[in-house]
Fold this sequence. Notes:
The chain is mostly beta strands. Helix content is 0%, strand content 51%. It has no helices and eleven strands. Strands 2, 4, 5, 6, 9, 10 and 11 form a seven-stranded mixed sheet that branches.
Amino acid sequence: VQLVESGGGLVQPGGSLKLSCAASGFTFDIFRMSWYRQAPGKGRDMVAAISADGGSLDYVDSVKGRFTISRDNAKNMVYLQMNNLKPEDTATYYCYLPTRNAWGQGTEVTVSS
């Protein structure tokens, strides 16, 4: 299993970023996928999750209405569109395959003026 995140960076408050996760080494289209984040000095928390077919989405309350998780099963990709970013969204964001307890290396997001 390999999960490779990209798309992080520095953005001003109110800005947007789109994170991508390229998945390989497993049958992507039958598994639920998640995004987690870990802020400096804090634990790793779930941000969003998506079912195998993309029909069921879950979000932590703090990102509802601002973040959108999606997937492209033809490309083995999962995405996290982040809008109206806030300083408290600053964290390392990880792609996660729950059934295999597999993590990507993470991509850093910094929201600061």
